[in-house]
Predict the 3D structure of the following.
Amino acid sequence: MKRIFGFATMIGAATWLITAPIAVQAQDDKMMPIAIPAQPTAIELGTPALPGATAKESWHSQYGSLFARNVTVATLTPFLPDPAKATGAAIVVAPGGGFRTLSMNNEGWDVAKALADRGVAAFVLKYRLRQTPADMPAFEKSMQEMFSPGARPPRPAPDPNFGDLSPQIADARAAFSLIRQRKAEWGVDADRIGMVGFSAGAMLTMATALAGQDAKPAFIGNIYGPLSSMTVPADAPPLFVALAADDPFFANGGIALIDDWRTAKRPAEFHLYERGGHGFGMYQKDTTSTGWFEAFVRWIGMHGMLARQANAPQ
């Protein structure tokens, strides 16, 4: 039952966590409502609209980035590499935001663009989210209350089927299915599709890898997600983890997940950065945590994911 307990703890943290960089300019921390940006290449995944949802999707800017919330219809946005660079490898990118928002720039589009530049087809998953107050003042108040002194994140009952994340897992599975269906069009090798997630997106990545065989990522990246203990299957994918030692949410929770992966004799690489806080993503900071992306690319290359193969477009 180790997996059930560990993942319940992870979900409990996610219900109140909002992805944000620790060190930001004061003038950037205000949530400013914006019109929903055009997303002409986004593809609806066909998973059901979120049951019982009443608030419509809305967006805001904060920390110099764009965030989506109240997402009820999941989409996948492809970022394809120049054919001259394409390797055939692909990655599903899952932004974070506590399952209440999605950090679409810092943990989505910017990551995907950087991967495409390295020859990797990247697909940003805009997954369905838990509902938040429709108007911005009420939303801000709800988030402030979650971060107030003495506040405790809710802890849902353990669910062996990851039921608390069932809509999000369904979205991730649909993303893998779509990529494999269109692999020839997108120049993707179906055996080299991985997934990388940030914070809540890291939780979704772990759940997608462990909750069933239909998605089955070839490799996974857990970027500043919790490292709670869980049962690791014998065929678990190679795991890459990046976390800052001053992360206020997950740095003091131990590294049982790394030990579990190694005990199962599955490949695992762990980068613990001295500083970086939470939510560093693709923000350029004066900390070594900024180097996580280069390390991740080198790691997937070490596992043979960047070797150009026959499925790569010509």
The helical segments are 2-14, 105-117, 136-146, 166-181, 183-186, 200-210, 256-263, 292-302. Residues 57 and 71 are 5 Å apart (CA to CA).
